[in-house]
Write a structure and sequence with these properties.
The protein has 327 residues and is of the alpha/beta class. The chain is built from eleven helices and eleven strands. It has a single domain (6-326), classed as Alpha/Beta hydrolase fold, catalytic domain (Rossmann fold).
Length: 327
């Protein structure tokens, strides 16, 4: 396996998402086309704004892919590590056994042939707290008539959004895969000064994105508060849950502010991964030994396998077991 590009491994792209080499074509088919099945890629009106949606495959439950902060949907489909001999990536792999959909949040981005490509969804006001993003997705799934129930797969910041969705609309979610997911509990693992410093590095604007006026921003304190409130009032209900956590240390700059250290952040992240894996007593916790933060790029087959196990468990609950494994 070729190493992940340096951009993907940087602290900035921990929350930016990875550049893509292939872009999808945008059409504007009707919402009934989404519900009808078959391949779909286009804009869906959610009431004055439109969001970009892609769906493929058939079967139930429908898998919803929630990307990380500032990341367009297309990096679920593109092989950034070995584009000359692309592997089966998550979107295509999941489409082989059930219906799968991915979408662009407003303000997300990717790079195609070195050029910045903005979100294919309509821009909206920023910063955008987590609950606003969850309500956008709910409106999209309703407007597009994407059939439930849903298995959510959330990477990084998208993992926190997936959990917030599950607490806000609990009857719609029947399974979940968290891919090195961001946790609101990171705040509890830091001093107030460290958390303040972490907020400052959470959403920087690198030179490559400086001209993108619609770039995604969030109010991190408000988002964390929303997740705490929602998950306290409506904890994750019984469902098959797999937590995929990185097995390789994430590279961090040496000059982090506020008393932060790469070692300290890694320890805090690991503790929170363990906590996420305890949200359900029968959850599986899988360590991706060959991956850093972008498990879906470095070990896409591992994510596909996890989704397959959860989908199988939804279809046949007797298949669910809870081994803690490393891969």
């Amino acid at each position: 396996m070729r190493p992940v590009p340096v951009l993907v491994l940087s602290l900035v792209t921990l929350l930016l998402g990875a550049p893509s080499l292939v872009g999808a074509q945008t059409a504007t088919p009707t919402a009934s086309a989404v519900a009808a099945g078959g391949d779909f890629a286009g804009l869906v009106d959610i009431g004055g704004r439109s969001l970009y949606l892609e769906c493929r495959g058939s079967g139930s439950p429908t898998v919803i892919l929630e990307a990380g902060f500032r990341s367009r949907a297309d990096y679920w489909t593109d092989d950034l590590i070995q584009p000359d001999a692309p592997r089966t990536m998550v979107f295509g792999g999941v489409a082989a056994f059930t219906r799968v959909c991915a979408y662009d949040r407003p303000g997300t981005t990717t790079f195609i042939d070195g050029a910045l490509q903005p979100s294919r969804s309509d821009a909206t006001s920023m910063p955008r707290p987590a609950l606003d993003s969850v309500q956008d997705l709910h409106a999209l799934l309703e407007a597009a008539k994407v059939p439930g129930p849903y298995v959510f797969v959330g990477h990084s910041y998208g993992g926190m959004l997936a959990r917030l969705y599950a607490s806000t609309y609990p009857s719609e979610i029947v399974g979940m895969v968290l891919v090195d997911a961001f946790s609101e509990g990171l705040e509890d693992q830091m001093t107030p000064d460290q958390w303040t410093a972490y907020e400052e590095i959470f959403q920087p604007v690198p030179d490559a994105l400086a001209g993108y006026k619609d770039l995604e921003f969030t109010d991190l304190d408000l988002s964390v508060s929303q997740v705490r409130e929602a998950t306290s009032a409506s904890p994750l209900r019984p469902l098959p849950l797999i937590v995929l956590s990185r097995g390789q240390v994430m590279e961090m700059p040496a000059d982090l502010p506020g008393g932060l250290t790469g070692e300290g952040l890694e320890q805090a992240w690991t503790l929170e991964q363990d906590r996420l894996a305890s949200l359900r007593p029968d959850a599986r916790h899988v360590i991706a030994n060959e991956s850093e933060h972008y498990i879906q790029l470095q070990q896409p087959e591992l994510v596909i396998e996890a989704v397959s196990d959860v989908v199988t468990a939804v279809r046949d609950p007797s298949s669910w077991a809870t081994p803690a494994t490393s891969s």
